[in-house]
């Protein structure tokens, strides 16, 4: 009887731990694509201890979020555009200072 109780407790723990992992993934369903102009932000979540899949979450103009298929062509294009935009932003945001020369005029 004692072994049966331990077995039931063990099975309950396993069931709870596996179901909790599914609940912590944000993307239960993914879409293949949508109009790029609607996207305002892109968030990539790499696999984590409680969610073993890569998730790509986009925020749209109306502040809703959608999950993209991380293996899809559209998602790869979105991530490439985001990477290029960030590279352009960092290269243009670095301040450039021109040397100034002080001139004095004496009257």
Automatic annotation (TrEMBL):
GO terms, biological process: immune response
UniProt KW keywords: Cytokine, Signal
Region (Disordered): 79-107
Domain Chemokine interleukin-8-like: 22-82
Organism: Parambassis ranga (Indian glassy fish)
UniProt entry tagged with the keyword Signal: yes
Amino acid composition bias (Low complexity), ranges on this chain: 90-107
Species lineage: Eukaryota, Metazoa, Chordata, Craniata, Vertebrata
Residues of the signal peptide: 1-19
Name by which UniProt lists this protein: Permeability factor 2-like
């Amino acid at each position: 009887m004692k072994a049966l109780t331990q077995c039931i407790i063990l099975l309950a723990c396993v069931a709870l731990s596996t179901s909790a992992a599914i609940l912590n993934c944000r993307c239960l369903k993914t879409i293949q694509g949508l109009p790029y102009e609607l996207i305002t932000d892109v968030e990539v979540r790499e696999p984590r201890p409680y969610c073993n899949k890569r998730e790509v979450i986009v925020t749209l103009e109306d502040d809703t979020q959608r999950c993209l298929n991380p293996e899809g062509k559209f998602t790869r294009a979105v991530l490439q555009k985001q990477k290029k935009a960030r590279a352009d932003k960092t290269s243009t945001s670095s301040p450039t200072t021109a040397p100034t020369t002080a001139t004095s005029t004496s009257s």
